[in-house]
């Protein structure tokens, strides 16, 4: 498992009975996590005095219960990057800290290039991978269907001192965008993508990731340069194991570009138990 263990502003303090006890900067949150099937004993006193707790609803969704004085939003840092986080719907905060392992990989590959590579970040959310690539010297095209998420990503870039870097911020359907880029002859040296488990296709049809992922990757491959640098595919979909994702990238990419594919779970270290909480899977093709 690849472990995101370089954080100082984020800490998974404990994990027990379907819940995470987390520190985001100076703010302590309790959030649900269905993968946590064990009981740690919950001896840490912060279990009884968090700043905010997310409560699931039996009818779906849930709500945040916050102490008076809990900030509406606040900054957290990873290395030299700064992100604004906040309690939002469906238990999220606007950042997935385990993704730092993929940011580190992308930065290492980019800094080894003699000329700035062109990176395409699809389903780009609040811009974690975008900021990492910009900081390493890449030119980035950031695409997400949510205007609010793209605005948030721009704010994170400003907080990180990266507003002047070469980046295109695009609010667009990722599949429609790729199809237009293919027709325009646009090419990228690397692609990063973290597609949702469920979504809508270009015609508005509902699609399930497991059924559409190979076709999506194959479509994106048409936007790669003749000698691409890497392709990062991340997923939080339970049915997509690292091995399945590895086979998918190998089938879609190695015939045209050679290279090699690796895949693994990504996770966060738990301070109290010294366990590592699995938080999704990533497959990486690289030249």
- Give me the strand/helix succession: EEEEEEEEHEHEHEHEEEHEHEE
Shape: globular
User: What is the multimeric organization of the chains shown?
Assistant: single chain
Describe the sheet with the most strands. 8 strands, mixed
What's the CATH class of the domain at 97-286, please? Alpha Beta
Strand order of the largest sheet: 1-16-17-15-12-9-10-11
Per CATH, the superfamily of the domain at 97-286 is: Vaccinia Virus protein VP39
Strand content: 25-35%
Q: Give the integer mean of the pLDDT values.
A: 95
> Which structural class do you get from the secondary structure elements?
alpha/beta
CATH topology-level fold name of the domain at 97-286: Rossmann fold
Uncertain spans, ≥5 residues at pLDDT below 50? none
CATH architecture term of the domain at 97-286:
3-Layer(aba) Sandwich
Number of helices: 6
Q: What do you see in this structure?
A:
- With 287 residues, the protein is of the alpha/beta class.
- The chain has a domain at 97-286: 3-Layer(aba) Sandwich (Rossmann fold).
- The chain has 6 helices and 17 strands.
- It has helices at residues 100-111, 128-136, 147-159, 174-184, 209-221, 242-257, and strands at residues 2-3, 10-16, 19-24, 27-32, 52-56, 62-66, 74-78, 81-85, 118-122, 139-144, 167-171, 190-193, 198-200, 206-208, 230-235, 260-269, 276-286.
- The strands form 4 sheets. An 8-stranded mixed beta sheet has the order 1-16-17-15-12-9-10-11. The protein has a 5-stranded mixed beta sheet with strand order 2-3-4-5-6, with no helix packed on it. Strands 7-8 form a two-stranded antiparallel ribbon.
- β9, α2 (128-136) and β10 form a beta-alpha-beta unit.
- α1 (100-111) runs parallel beside α2 and α5 (209-221) runs parallel beside α6 (242-257).
- It is globular.
């Amino acid at each position: 498992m690849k472990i995101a263990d370089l954080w100082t502003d984020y800490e998974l303090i404990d994990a027990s009975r379907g819940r995470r006890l987390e520190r985001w900067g100076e703010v302590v949150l309790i959030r649900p996590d269905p993968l946590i099937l064990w009981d740690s004993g919950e001896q840490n006193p912060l279990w009884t005095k968090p700043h905010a707790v997310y409560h699931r609803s039996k009818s779906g969704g849930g709500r945040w219960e916050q102490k008076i004085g809990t900030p509406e939003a606040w900054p957290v840092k990873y290395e030299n990057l700064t992100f604004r986080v906040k309690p939002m719907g469906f238990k999220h905060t606007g950042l997935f800290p385990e993704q730092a392992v993929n940011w580190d990989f992308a930065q290492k590959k980019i800094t080894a290039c003699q000329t700035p590579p062109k990176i395409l970040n699809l389903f780009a959310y609040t811009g974690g991978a975008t900021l990492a690539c910009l900081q390493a010297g890449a030119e980035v095209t950031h695409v997400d269907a949510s205007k609010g998420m793209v605005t948030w990503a721009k704010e994170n870039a400003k907080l990180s001192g990266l507003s002047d870097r070469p980046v295109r911020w695009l609010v667009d359907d990722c599949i429609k965008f790729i199809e237009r880029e293919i027709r325009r002859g646009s090419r990228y040296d690397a692609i990063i993508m973290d597609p949702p488990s469920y979504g809508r296709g270009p015609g508005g049809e509902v699609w399930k990731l497991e059924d559409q992922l190979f076709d999506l990757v194959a479509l994106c491959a048409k936007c790669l340069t003749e000698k691409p640098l890497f392709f990062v595919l991340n997923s939080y979909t339970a049915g997509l194991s690292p091995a399945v994702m590895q086979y998918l990238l190998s089938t879609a990419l190695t015939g045209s570009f050679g290279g090699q594919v690796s895949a693994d779970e990504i996770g966060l270290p738990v301070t109290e138990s010294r366990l590592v909480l699995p938080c999704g899977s990533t497959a990486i093709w690289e030249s």
